[in-house]
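Anyone opening a protein record will find just a pair of labelled lines. A complete record is shown below as an example:
=====
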Amino acid sequence: MKLMVFDVGGTEIKYSVMDETLARNESGSVPTPMTSREDFFEVLRGIYEPHKGEVEGIAMSLPGFIDSENGFCRGGGALRYNHGKEVAKPLSDLTGCPVHIANDGKCAALAELRDGALKGCQNASVFIIGTGVGGGLIIDGRILNGKHFTAGEFSFMRVSNADWDDPGTTSGIVCSTTGLLDLNRRYNNFSWDPLLNGKQFFDKVAAGDHGAKVVLDKFCKQVAMQITNLTILLDLEKVAVGGGISKQPILIETIRKHVDEMYDNPGPYFDPGLPKPEVVPCRYGSEANQVGAYYYYQMAK
């Protein structure tokens, strides 16, 4: 079965034609329209159109609080124009083929649980570092959706009460690529540089830039704190880190270092019997969302 698979993010839409072996063809990416739903659907239709004769349907991973069964966005995430609206049916009407949608973090979790880094786990999580922080929780061997479809929305967790009115520095978004670049901006005391992206930042780290290495260390400590809190709350065995920047080995190494330090130097209010999670990269890396979207489509048939 071939499907048109979309991974919709806050910055770009990645796509491919995927078959049952998970082989991807005709892959590419385009900027995510931030203007309107009409523009959003038109971009998707334009990508699908050349392949309509070879695919059975459309499987889509996207941000927000997604009611997969009804194809509905209870919350649009980075795509505010989808808030409180149907997505699957309008796209199906536009393209003339079946459409299934699912939350991006939960797609990644399903991919890694099915045959990836979290295979065989009872309690585990993915931690997807992108424009926001995608999360997918596995509890008792199953993906946790939650009554309101908001389980695993790590971007909205508060990590500090130091400045409650500034969620950009006190919410889980600090653990995103957006948060990393903002931390770099604040550390260097310069205005926002729209040309700086995750790859360019890690190029600076690889070149030995002192400031970039300090920023990376601070960032990874924030991520490690989130992972530690999730583990204490949910008794996690593993946390698989994904997203574009997870391809950088130094990211995983530095997160592990800080998780180890938190358990090795626990202080008086930390019981040594608490479990320490294994921090691993997602097997599917930045492609986990596409793979999970394919699996969700299969399950819905």
Notes: The chain has a mean pLDDT of 92.
